[in-house]
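Journal club prep — side note

Before the paper discussion, L.F. wants everyone to see what a predicted structure for a comparable chain looks like in token form. Sequence:
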Amino acid sequence: MSARHAAFVSRTVILAAAVLLAAAIFPAQAQMGIGIKTDREGYLQYEAVRVAITVRNDTGNSLVFSADDGKSYLHLEVADPNGLPAKRVRKADLAEGAVIGAGETSRLEVLLNDLYDIQPEGTYTVTAQIGHSRLDRDYRSESVRIRIQSGHIFWFKQFGVPVDEGVKTIPRRKVSLISYRDERRERLAVQVEDEAAVYGIIRLGPRIIGSTPECDVDTYSNIHLLYMLRPRLYEYRVLDCNLVQKQQRFLMLEETSSPHLQRDPDIGRIMVSGGRPAVDGTDYKQEDLSELEREKAMAREAGARPDRMETGGGSPTVTDPAPVPAGKSITPAAGGQIMGLPDASP
């Protein structure tokens, strides 16, 4: 055999071995594709973490997921900041009852807080894995990393929640203003909680140096917020006790007066005094606030509507912030059905 022919044979063998190796390393490309992503990388402690799982069926057959066969499943694996398996809160087969047709791509959205304890600060690693009784192997997604951070409570107020006359003890909650820092700057958030649960967290916007955010609760337990979005532009929002928005307005600072919250001591009504209404297109452009609005939309979607309220009592004077108890529940329930999304891909 000539040296040239030997070299050709050697290259052919190497190429064939490389093809076989690639087939062994990337089996997901052959029959199933699975991907995972979150709406952001960094989250506040107790904030709802929503995970989107995308599954593509390239098996050429419809796949029915049933717990009865003991081999068909879809689940998430979470590693805590120490690299150890995170504590599981609830075990769930996320794909039970789903049918993914041949060639279809399906999507499932999951509230991660409902499945794992991700309250401690740090960076977590999340991976999706799927298996089926008709497949000879299981498939894993690439991992995503999420960072959980706590904020600093710089103001809070406790308030009672309206209930029926027959309720013996009036439930008590706490609304807090929180400052936290993301990759770019210091920002504001509002949180409502009681001793057992966090009912919602909403990101508000940047914290402007030299401007003091205002917050108060009216006689109907509505939360009023007034804060500066950027120099001279203020946002005023009214939220109910579950952080569901009821009103939103923008105001401008005037040379003679600045917007501020004013409370009627006789009836507990809260209103905005000072400043003037901001005009869209003149004082600001709605598209300039698009990033902020996207953050708010995601926060509102993750907001809580509790089906029960814990009892408590009293409404003490605002003092230094109390530590947040560990082990609280997050009120949004895990949601989502597997839905076909033909134009999606993992």
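L.F.'s comment for the group: The chain has two domains: 28-148+331-340, 152-323. Keep this in mind when we get to the figures.
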